[in-house]
Amino acid sequence: MTKRRLASGQPPQSYQDILLRPLFQLGVLLLSSTIVRMTIVLLYLLPAYIIFKTIEVLPSVYKRCHLLLTLSGRDQLVKESDQQRAREEDLARRQYDGSCILFHEAELFRTDAKKCLGQAHWSPQTERFSVCGAGVGVVHEKPEKVTGPTIVLLHGNPSWSFMWRNVIPHLTQQGHEVCVALSTLPALPPGTCTSLFLLNTFFPPRPTDISVHCYMLYLLWFFSTGIIDGYLPEWAVMRYMSPQTTSRAMDGYCAPFTADVATKASVSRFAHIVPGIPDFILSLRSNYLWQIVEGLLDPTSFTNISAQARLAQRNVAVRSFWADPAVELQEEVRPQVMVAFGHDDPL
Q: What is the pLDDT of residue 10?
């Protein structure tokens, strides 16, 4: 098997590294303070986010405000809220069972895969398949002879398979077939997954699981993506997460997202569907007054909150299973699990 070129070389430091490394190390140091995080969130990002969202919903309020004057009008707002929620539930179900077509190729903004891999100085084996109507490229490496179980590596968002570039060769050399996918665990038949290894997720669990310090980091992410959206520089996020990263590696991490802001459409959505809203707020969604407001402001403006509510319910079901799985299912379904995390991880 031809030995593949790795993007792990350590070239001499560029002027960007000399300048940006200490700058972002200072940023990490400043944001290590809960008070600093809270100040940025409450005094700057939260007011800006409220203003931004208010401007966004003003046309809907102007168009629908007359419905508040009558009982039938208010009932119509609630009905529109219920209908939008039902559509989203149906879409989520069809996505889950693979029966929905969300995209048409002509509507998609596509990144040049060859150019992207060239910019990353990486040349893995890839395959393409369709997901909800969109063609998706996936890294799929195979050893000369498969002698071990297949391993699925998951990457985060914003990120891509590049983050596993130095791990994949070690796994294939040991006889493992390796695939890389986005950090959304698929629905797998019982017994398919024999073990699960989670490491340094940088992923916020439910608000009840983490400290105020870590929750402020989640809110920094939530509000900044909500305000700046796809214009939040990819390199800035990566530099914050790993100040020591070289410019060469940074070029690789940013490669899929440099062509157009449209390439980062999933980044903002991902930040806003992670169930970070406290349960007591999500529970208000069944309230009549909430649904009136939802209908007034345009039910589609609440799509992300609805997604958070569904994921929060799923979270309860998953935790209940792991806490006390049925005896007859335990050996068949429950895989071996190991969690490893660094001292900065919210877990």
A: 47
